[in-house]
Design goal:
Two copies of one chain form a homodimer. Chain A is of the alpha/beta class and 138 residues long. Chain A contains four helices and five strands. Chains A, B: Catalyzes the deamination of adenosine to inosine at the wobble position 34 of tRNA(Arg2).
Chain lengths: 138, 138
């Protein structure tokens, strides 16, 4: 998660909403990404989406069944839908997203085999987001 | 929707699950795409995702508030989540997706301002999908 947090810091430096993600497969980071919705003018360019696309490119495989995605913020519905398609082994996220998090929907979104862990480096990840939005308002 | 269906036919020819999409803005098609999950080894490469990314590139704008997306199959949750972020004016889809369609989730997924129309060219779109899966089994 520290590597995902470093990606979030890169997003922060780039004036993007600071969310970072990495994909780990067999103890190796195979993809790193951060949110680039502003730079790319693309609402789909969330850290998770870019990370799973990069991981799939790396593996030349659509399914990431032996991979773990670490992301600093709870995935939104779009990202959770993508993670479901990718059939990840595990998803670990940091801060909760009380407005847009996928867990707000009362249905199972992720793949039934995907394990979920939350709250890892949640405070740092949330503090970074709060700082970003504080800067934006000033 | 006929243009979206043409895109689905291109997917069919490419041995991809035949779903096509176009984005229309001010009476002009600004993006056309079809599902490319196999070719790109990428579960996020659904027709809708590629179409809204292409439309946003065309407009140099993240939000597609004056645009209509036509897609031959009901969007999945990932795509519906993306369409929500893109704040489309209207989404028109063809066939219902009884297994993966976003309307299976009992929550409002799309943006509150997005109008939805369904069932346009549903029969042709569904027949094409059925033919694809029949070929796959044989």
């Amino acid at each position: 998660m520290q590597e995902a947090y470093k990606q979030a810091l890169l997003a922060y430096q780039d004036k993007e909403i600071p969310v970072g993600a990495v994909v780990v497969c067999r103890n190796k980071i195979i993809a790193r990404a951060y949110n680039q919705t502003e730079k790319l003018h693309d609402v789909t360019a969330h850290a998770e989406m870019l990370a799973i696309t990069a991981a799939a490119n790396h593996l030349h495989a659509k399914y990431l069944t032996q991979c773990t995605l670490y992301v600093t913020l709870e995935p939104c519905l779009m990202c959770a839908g993508a993670l479901a398609w990718a059939q990840l082994d595990r998803v670990v996220f940091g801060a909760k997203d009380a407005k847009r998090g996928f867990s707000l929907v009362p249905s199972k979104i992720l793949h039934p085999k995907t394990k979920i862990t939350s709250g890892i480096m949640a405070q740092e990840s949330e503090a970074l987001l709060q700082q970003f939005f504080r800067n934006l308002r000033n």
